[in-house]
């Protein structure tokens, strides 16, 4: 059974102040199997963030449905959805979204605190996640005291602390230099090998080449998808670039 299913998602943004409407997603259907690492690519404005936010229940679709482990998330109330998101999904943003008034440890523990978990259970989870992500030495520091790459690792820890079914990331390497990007992508690769399902939006072919499947979106629809299969990362990278070139050709036809 797929872990995540998007069926016929449509999203129309309408402004209260003007008559113009934007169709950010037209008709998006795809499934994510447990243990997959999917990258979503497409030009700026093609609807990638809209799609990810809808998958995460941060935003609601105009039509269509998202199912996580077989249950529709559309039926949940706003409050249920917030708790559901906290328990089942981990979200990573381009700009980290860490709170500077909390130290890194408290940032990571925030989802558990909001769930009202016991301190002892929290500390246990924290030390295991911190070890996996190699950030034990950073826990007592504050976000403004560490580098971008380190901040993103802390943000990954916060996303992983509840043991989410799916990790969703919107341009997670967008603010990182190339070395920190590679480290983050290797970390994603390792987490994925350990069984973590990941869906990542990215502009970068290099970042996407770490994934096992790439979905290309154009004008709010899925244009194409390619699987890595047995190819190595470099061969897959070439194929991703070929597809992007074809897509650019199609949009100017
Ligand atoms: N809250 C909103 N209200 C109105 N229009 C929006 C809103 N959010 C996004 N849009 C529009 O929907 C379309 C898709 O936006 P989206 O942010 O999903 O694109 P994207 O693929 O993530 O782009 P980028 O690569 O630049 O991040 C764009 O035309 C955008 O202007
Ligand atoms: Mg975006």
Following the backbone from N to C, one meets helices and strands in this order, namely: EEEHEEHEHHHEHEHEEH
Number of helices: 8
Largest sheet, described in full?
6 strands, mixed
Query: How many E strands?
Result: 10
| CATH architect. name | 3-Layer(aba) Sandwich
The distinct bound ligands, ions and cofactors come out as: adenosine-5'-triphosphate, magnesium ion
| Silhouette | globular
- Percentage beta strand: 15-25%
Secondary-structure blueprint of this entry?
Blueprint: E1 4-14, E2 21-32, E3 37-41, H1 48-55, E4 63-68, E5 71-72, H2 78-88, E6 89-92, H3 104-114, H4 119-133, H5 148-160, E7 166-170, H6 178-193, E8 197-201, H7 205-208, E9 213-218, E10 221-227, H8 233-251
Parallel strand pairs: 3-8, 3-9, 6-7, 7-8
Antiparallel strand pairs: 1-2, 1-4, 4-5, 9-10
The chain binds adenosine-5'-triphosphate and magnesium ion.
Short description:
The chain is an alpha/beta fold and 253 residues long.
How would you describe the overall organization of this protein?
The protein contains eight helices and ten strands. It is an alpha/beta fold. The mean pLDDT is 93. Adenosine-5'-triphosphate binds at residues 13, 22, 24, 42, 44-50.
């Amino acid at each position: 059974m797929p872990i995540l299913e998007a069926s016929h998602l449509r999203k129309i943004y309408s402004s209260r102040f003007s008559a113009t409407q934007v169709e950010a997603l037209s008709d998006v259907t795809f499934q994510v199997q447990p243990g997959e690492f999917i990258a979503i690519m497409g030009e700026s404005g093609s609807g990638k963030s809209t799609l990810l936010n809808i998958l995460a229940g941060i935003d609601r679709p105009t039509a269509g449905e998202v199912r996580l482990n077989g249950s529709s998330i559309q039926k949940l109330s706003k409050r249920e959805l917030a708790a559901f998101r906290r328990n089942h999904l981990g979200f990573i943003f381009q700009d980290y979204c860490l709170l500077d008034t909390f130290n890194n440890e408290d940032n990571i523990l925030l989802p558990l605190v909001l769930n009202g978990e016991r301190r002892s259970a929290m500390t246990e989870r924290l030390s295991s996640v911190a070890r996996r992500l190699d950030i034990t030495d950073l826990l007592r520091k504050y976000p403004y005291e560490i580098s971008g790459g380190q901040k993103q690792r802390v943000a990954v820890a916060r996303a992983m602390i509840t043991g989410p079914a799916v990790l969703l990331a919107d341009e997670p390497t967008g603010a990182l230099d190339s070395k920190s990007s590679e480290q983050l992508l290797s970390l994603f690769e390792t987490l994925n090998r350990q069984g973590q399902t990941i869906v990542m939006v990215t502009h970068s072919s290099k970042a996407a080449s770490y994934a096992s499947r790439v979905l290309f979106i154009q004008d709010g629809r899925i244009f194409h998808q390619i699987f890595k299969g047995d190819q190595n990362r470099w061969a897959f990278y070439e194929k991703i670039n070929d597809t992007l070139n074809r897509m650019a050709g199609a949009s100017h036809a």
